[in-house]
Design goal:
A two-stranded antiparallel sheet has the order 1-2. By secondary structure, the protein is α+β, with helices and mostly antiparallel strands. It has one domain. Strand 3 and strand 4 form a beta hairpin. It is built from two helices and four strands; from the N terminus they run E-E-E-E-H-H.
Length: 70
């Protein structure tokens, strides 16, 4: 996973079943798994505030598959 001020890139393993329109939970709970803001921020050595700012709602969500960008 990588971050910048304007973009967030997620690496999804090839063996993961994912389709256009599926919900991806980055922070929060999905099933029995939970990632809180503190844990997510620690992956990038940033504060929780910096993390929240990088995930602002002004960034568009773009899904790119192997054939095309949506």
């Amino acid at each position: 996973m990588d971050k910048s001020i304007q973009h967030l890139t997620l690496e999804i393993p090839d063996d993961t079943e994912i389709n256009l329109g599926d919900t991806i939970t980055i922070i929060g709970q999905s099933g029995d798994e939970y990632i809180d803001m503190s844990e997510y921020s620690s992956w990038f050595n940033t504060s929780e505030l910096e993390t929240m700012l990088t995930l602002s709602n002004r960034m568009p969500i773009v899904v790119i598959n192997k054939d095309e960008a949506v």
